[in-house]
Amino acid sequence: QVQLVESGGGLVQTGGSLRLSCAASGRIFSINDMAWYRQAPGKQRELAAVITSGGSTIYVDSVKGRFTISRDNAKNTVYLQMNSLKPEDTGVYYCKAVIQVLNRSFGNYWGQGTQVTVSS
For the CA atoms of 81, 116, 42, 59, what is the dihedral angle to 10 degrees? Predict the structure, then answer.
């Protein structure tokens, strides 16, 4: 049993910054890839950034140079630093992790989502 809890969302003006956090807890054996997805109003959910267990990162083109994904393995936490925010970044941000639980099975686990609103 695993839970992912996100925090850090909120309202910010265009050009501002936010840092999202997502902490995993529960019967965790190990955590593989961790990612941030986002869903703008009326649009499909998209992968914004992913970080592997080894620290390699991938970003969707629209956030490259502005967002940084990182992780703290000791805290079972993934972060998304968002700079130079634009109204187009508005949406619900979800963290996802591939987690191996104590019985060694793997599963995809999702956070509840946190709202990010960028005003113009």
Answer: 0
Q: Is the pLDDT of residue 118 over 90?
A: yes
Angle at 12 between CA 18 and CA 4, to 5 degrees: 45
Beta strands in 40-90 (DSSP E): 46-51, 57-59, 67-72, 77-82
Mean pLDDT over the full length of the chain: 97
- The band of 42, judged by pLDDT with boundaries at 50, 70 and 90, is very high
Rounded CA separation 87/8 (Å): 17
Two structure tokens written together for 35: 């990612």
SS3 content of the chain, % helix, strand, coil (to 5): 10, 60, 30
> What DSSP character marks residue 113?
-
CA separation (Å) from 103 to 27, 73, 81, 100? 9, 20, 33, 8
The count of other CB atoms within 10 Å of the CB of residue 68 is 16
| DSSP letter (8 states) at residue 37 | E
Residue 64 tokens, joined: 């490259």
